[in-house]
Amino acid sequence: MKYKIEKNTVQETLILPLYSRKLCSELYPNLYRDETAVRLIDEIDYDFSEAEKSSRSLMQRFGALEVAMRQNDLAFEVQAYLKNHPCAAVVNLGCGLDNTGRACDNGRCKIYNLDFPDVIVLRQQLLPAGEREQNIPCDLKKPAWFDKIDASGGAVFFASGVFYYFLTEQVRALVQGMADAFPGGVLVFDAANRTAVKMIAKTWLRTAKIKDVEAYFAVSDAERELSPWDSRLQVSSKGYMLGYNDLKDPSVSGFFRFLAKVGDNGMKMQIVKIGFGDRQ
Questions:
Q1: Strand order in the sheet with 270-276
Q2: Quick one: what percent of the chain has pLDDT higher than 90?
Q3: pTM (2 decimals)?
Q4: What share of the chain is helix, strand, coil (3-state, %, to 5)?
Q5: Of 66, 136, 127, the residue nearest 99 (C-alpha)
């Protein structure tokens, strides 16, 4: 029996990123493969006709490449942390139906998937927590969830496409709180500059009723802009289209590699890494 998703619901907002990850897996199989997304799309009763139609467009296909690179980059950073902290907590902030935590599982880490309660209800139906894994309902902006993370073996946190929807002060407060609660931990997330955030805003301004885009979180020079938030932070960044992969794969056209350079250099699309304390 398939799990039905209705149009114009909160649950529907989780379907499109899932479809993008499935599309990535089909378009760029040498670069990215999300077996969970492929499986879940088959298990969900939803009208995908609009998504399938738009997937034929050039920019939608480039958007799928962006998704693939972002997920690969975040997974790379999680796995790099686990090499030195094999029993760490792996924490997916704003998880939706993403299964990156489990994809990075080394057999010893603890996996936490955090999102709003209604999202976790759906996740429990489609992706029930496995061994050493918890699906935690919470509001990321409220630090009550800190106490639910066992960071005794270290902690690596990642957020994919999440902080664009936070006010800058909300990201700052979260980062400072995490530095207090998780010394030696690492947070990695994707970010972009103000121009890119304004472009992103065009797709969610209508539903979020946002008036002051300038207040929302954007980054051009992560080390310069974020380091002053707290003296304990160790901040670095890489372009997320070409910072981890040269994209010289037959599935990626020269035009898409050009757009990737524009994204990394012009839009400052980047993976930001923030270390808390001195245990990395």
A1: 133-137, 110-115, 89-93, 155-159, 186-191, 270-276, 233-239
A2: 75
A3: 0.93
A4: 50, 20, 35
A5: 127
